[in-house]
Amino acid sequence: MKKIIVKNSGYIELPRVVDERDGVLSIMEGNRDIPFEIKRVYYINHLENCHSVRGKHAHKTLKQVIFCINGSFVLSFDDGTNTQDVLMWRDNVGVLLGPGLWHTMHSFSSGCILLVVASDYYDEADYIRDYDEFMKFAGAMK
Fold this sequence. Notes:
The protein is mainly beta. The protein has one domain: Sandwich (Jelly Rolls), CATH 2.60.120.10. It has 1 helix and 12 strands, in the order ββββββββββββα. Strands 1-9-6-11-4 form a 5-stranded antiparallel sheet, with no helix packed on it. A 5-stranded antiparallel sheet has the order 8-7-10-5-12.
C-alpha cells in the first residue's frame, strides 16, 4: 500500500475470515477496528459513470472511514499542505479521514460501491463546501 502523507488520516485494515467457497467475512467494530464510536453508516452506489465526482468538501470535526466494497475508485485528499491520491479497491482496507481534510472520490469503476462509517450524525454546519474557506480553516488548524 502506498504510504499516506496527508495528516489526520491513515489506513484501517479490517480483519477477514476466509471461508473457502462460502465467501469472505470482513469484520468492523467501532472503538476496536474503527478508532471511534460509529454513529452513522452510509453507502454510495449506482454511480452514473466514471466521470462522477463525489465529496468536494471537508469536515470541521467529523471523522470518517471510507471503504470500497466493490470495484474501485480514486480517493483524493488534501490537508491544506499535502495532497494525495489513493486507489481504493480492497474491500477490507479503508482510509481514515479525520477533521480538516478536503476530499473527493472519482474515477469510479463499473459497479463501484463505497461504504462510509462516521463518528457523528449528519450536521450540515460541520461541512466546509468552499475550497477557499477550507484553506483558511486548514491554515487556522496549523
